[in-house]
């Protein structure tokens, strides 16, 4: 296995600093915009009562208080300005694949680190979940100055192994989260699509905003193999030797359909779906998404 990368090395930090400056405006569509419409109200909490005065909206009258005190009282609310974000990073064995450069897992970790960096600079709360066939590690949402380091260290200590059960993990997270927020899934989605979509729908049913960052290796998309090759299933430990030219057309058709199906189904559920190719530099890929979201 290649040496574990430092997700917060000087070069990465330099790129993230540039990202923060560039994202300051367009990021409103991803983060700041979630504090307002169309998700207005999910971060608004009851503060106190005050006596009704003419001109107040009747819908804010607390009728239970009226029954108790025989006076009209208005419920006042306080908008919570901190967004809660949960980063769900796939740490199954298939994420360890790399054709060259970084693995899918490393790329997902860089994305997660970049997002955590941007959000914590906005004083938003960031939580982390790493998973495979179940939850591996979980950090509750925090906005403290030292929390970014905790997120980075957790990612650096994680080794991608085991089979994937993304659908079950999503259901577990949806049942566990008591407060609505932003859930970002970083995965190659190499699991049963129907089960994955059920889990994503569960999160949407709970009123979470959901983003899916679909991370695939460039070779998984392009399938550039031309000579007799041994292909290995990293999760099932199955190896097959074949002539890639005999299956290239079918494979490319199926992988494109696989991507299209996820994109279509996510859009139908009002879930943002973005494909990330590990050949694309991290900052360019993320800024492209931020620009699209902010448009």
CATH homologous group name of the largest domain: von Willebrand factor, type A domain
The backbone outline, from C-alpha atoms, is: elongated
Fraction of residues in helix: 40-55%
Which second-level CATH architecture of the largest domain applies? 3-Layer(aba) Sandwich
The CATH class of the largest domain turns out to be: Alpha Beta
Characteristic terms for this protein:
single chain; 295 residues; alpha/beta; Rossmann fold; 2 domains; six-stranded mixed beta sheet; 9 helices; 10 strands; elongated
Structural summary, described in words:
The protein has 295 residues and is of the alpha/beta class. It folds into two domains: 10-36 and 81-294, 3-Layer(aba) Sandwich (Rossmann fold); 44-79, no CATH class. The protein has nine helices and ten strands. It has helices at 10-26, 63-69, 104-121, 147-156, 166-176, 193-205, 218-222, 244-268, 282-294; strands at 44-51, 73-79, 84-90, 125-131, 135-142, 182-187, 209-216, 229-233, 238-242, 272-277. The strands form three sheets. The chain has a six-stranded mixed beta sheet with strand order 5-4-3-6-7-10, with helices on both faces. Strands 1-2 form a two-stranded antiparallel sheet. β3 (84-90), α3 (104-121) and β4 (125-131) form a beta-alpha-beta unit. The radius of gyration is 22 Å and the shape is elongated.
């Amino acid at each position: 296995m290649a040496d574990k990368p430092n997700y917060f090395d000087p070069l990465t930090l330099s790129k993230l600093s540039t990202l923060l400056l560039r994202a300051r405006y367009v990021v409103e569509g991803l983060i700041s915009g979630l504090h307002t419409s169309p998700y207005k109200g999910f971060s608004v909490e009851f503060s106190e009562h005050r006596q009704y005065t003419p001109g107040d909206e009747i819908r804010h009258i607390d009728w239970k208080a009226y029954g108790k005190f025989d006076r009209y009282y208005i419920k006042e609310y306080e908008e919570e300005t901190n967004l809660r974000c949960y980063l769900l990073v796939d740490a199954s064995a298939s994420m360890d694949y790399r054709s060259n450069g970084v693995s899918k897992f490393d790329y997902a970790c860089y994305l997660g680190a970049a997002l955590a960096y941007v959000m914590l600079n906005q004083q938003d709360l960031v939580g982390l979940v790493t998973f495979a066939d179940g939850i591996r590690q979980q950090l509750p949402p925090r906005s403290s100055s030292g929390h970014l380091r905790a997120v980075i260290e957790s990612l650096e200590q994680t080794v991608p192994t085991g089979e994937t059960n993304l659908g079950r993990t999503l259901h577990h997270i949806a049942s566990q989260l008591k407060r609505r927020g932003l859930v970002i899934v970083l995965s190659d989605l190499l699991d049963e699509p129907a089960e994955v979509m059920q889990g994503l729908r569960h999160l949407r049913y709970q009123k979470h905003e959901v983003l899916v960052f679909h991370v695939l290796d460039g070779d998984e998309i392009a399938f550039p193999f031309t000579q007799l090759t041994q292909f290995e299933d990293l999760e099932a430990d199955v190896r097959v030797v074949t002539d890639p030219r005999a299956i290239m057309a079918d494979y490319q058709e199926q992988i494109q359909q696989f991507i299209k199906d996820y994109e279509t189904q996510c859009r139908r559920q009002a879930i943002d779906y973005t494909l990330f190719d590990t050949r694309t530099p991290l900052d360019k890929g993320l800024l492209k998404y931020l620009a699209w979201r902010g448009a």
